[in-house]
Structure formats: C-alpha cells, structure tokens
Amino acid sequence: MEYDDTERATEFAKKTREFVDEVVIPVERDVLGGDPISDDQLDALREEARDYGVYAPHLPEEYGGHGLSYRDMLPVFEEAGRSLLGAPAIKVEAPDEGNMHTLELFGTEDQKEEYLRPLAQGEIRSAFSMTEPIQGGGSDPKMMETTAEKDGDEWVINGHKWWTTQGTEADVLIVMAVTDPDAHPYEGCSLFLVDKDTDGVNVVRDIPHTGGNVTGVGHAEIEYDNVRVPETAVLGDLNEGFSHAQARLGPARLTHCMRYSGMAQRSLDIAKAYISEREAFGEPLSEKQSLRFEIADAETRLHATRTMVRHAARQINQGNEARIPVAMTKVFAANTCQDVIDQAIQMCGGNGIGKDLPLADFYESVRQFRIVDGADEVHKRVIARDALSDADEHTFELEALTRF
Asked: Fewer CB atoms < 10 Å away: N or C end of the chain?
C-alpha cells in the first residue's frame, strides 16, 4: 500500500525496521517469559540505536534527535511498535514521548534544560500524573480534586493520583491540579513539574496490572501531601493545564495508534507464518477458508487504521484540533489492534498463549489501549455529540412521514 509518506519518512521507517529486526527482537527473545528488561540492557539498546542513526527521531537535533516532522514520525513509530522494546529503545515510548512533546511545546528554556534534555538522552524518566481514584477525575476531568494553592512564592499541591504510568520509576512528574476552583475545570487547572524526591510526594504502590512483563513499566498510586514547588514549576500558562494536556494527548493518541498498529501487524505476520507451516486435517492451516477470511479482514482493517491515522495527522499539521478525526481513529485502531492480536493468538493455538512467541505479551499490552488516552466510551460520546449537532438541519428528510 502507498500512504503518501515522504521519502525521508519511508527511509527512516525502513532503517527503524531493520534496527528492530536485527537488534531489538534478539533481546526481546531473551526477555520473553522471564524478568523484564534491565536498565543495562535498555541502555545498550539505546546506544545501538544511536549508532544505527534511529535514536529519538521525533526530537530536535539540538536535543540529540533527528527532527522528523510529526507526520513523518508516524510510520517510524509503527516500525518501533513491532516489539514492546522497540519504542523504549529509540526513545519514542509512552509516557516519555508525550511528556517530551509537552515540554517542547510549553516549557521555558530553563525547564527544557533541566528536564527535556536529560529525558531526551535517556538519563531520567517522567510520568504524567492526572488520573485520580474513583471519586476524582478520570474520563471526566471536571471531577478533578487535586489542588494547588499559592502560598507566597510557592505552590502547595495536595491530592491523590493513581494509574500514573511510569510513576514508580519516574524522576519527574507532570502533575495536573486545580489552581482556580471558581473557574470551569477546563479553564482552572494547571500543570506542574514536580521532582519525585520532593517532600510530600508519596508513591503508595505500583498497582498490579495486566501487562508490563517485558518492559517492567508500572502504574503508580501517588499521594501529594503539602508538596511545595516554586513558581517556576508551572509548566505552560497558569490555568491552561487542560488545553495543554489536550495538545499533548491528541498527537499522543495517534502515536499510540501507530505503535500498536506495528504490534498488530507483527502479530499477523507471525500468525501467517505459523498457519503456513502448521498442518491439520490433511493440509496447511493457511488453506482453510475461515482463516484466509480472517487474514483478509485483519489486513483490511489495519490498512484502514493507517489511512485514518494519516488523515487525522494531516489535520493536526494544518493547525486544526482534529478532535473528531483523532477520536474516531483512536477507537477504531484500539479495537482493530486488539482483535487482530487476539486472532493471531487463536491461529497459533498453544504457541499463541505460550511465551516463546511475543503474542501473549502483546495481548496483555493491547487491552489497555481501549482505556488509556481516553476510554472508547468517552471518544464515542464526543463523536456522537458532533454527529448529532446538526440533526435539526435534516428534518426535511422526514417530511414524507405520516403524522397525527
């Protein structure tokens, strides 16, 4: 398929695929079924990524990256996503990728030097601390209860967060808190850069969860108890935290789509190889019509996903919020990738659920995609609201109806 990717994007994606095949997947095979990748192994992969010339493709050259445009990054992210270790190896993994983008967009020069540069080099890790337990903000950010109050030249943060991805391992946390309780939540929240070793930051636990066996990345529950940060800790404009988060989440949703598309495509490739070799009832499984139809359906839906991603990305590149195209893409991609990986496991039978192949770990990872960066139901709500916004304009279609 041709996707109108630029020559640079195509070449960089090809190089990334070679790096994943030749360097990352051999390490992946050593890790499958055992302990997560170690820091030393990850550092070695990143060093090889630098030697390969594929490290940090999305970052400006001044931070050690390659300065690819957002549109050009997408096929690269897909190739990186073919292994759970691909994205962290070339430094395009969540949540660091989105957090670096946020710092690049809204950080001061001092904040970029203190946090963005070491993040780009893989020297520190970050987390985005927004979601709260059941009574607080999650899918509905208007319910956010974490507050930040001004006290002299400091801000005092109090609140309870959870499901802060990489929060246990992070060195710096981007914390969303209410700074103007009288304003609408969309206009009264702010982002703060908080060093995790700051007094009052208490990592309660790493929440037991599905997946994470290969990368070792956790999801933390964190309490903020009178955490004091200076005025310079505000990231971006005061009371614009929600709009800043949206600027982070829109592009991040599409990069998630591409990473998981790569994972789903590799799962399908594994399944195609398996059913071509495996024989049952007198012929290769690949000759069974039901499996051939499943392969055709999976290839079609993955093609549609890539096309939708590129359409939404083009809208973002043109300066549009692209909220509806992004929401549609996110829902479609999440369900497609989950279904394709599930089909691949089924085709591979016992080898699908075993951990000699990466499919079981892929399956554990992909299930979260329908929840993280906005649950399916939230995106569908947004899509439906937009779809029904002009319903009155079409009442002429009902003129032929019989009425009392």
From this structure: C
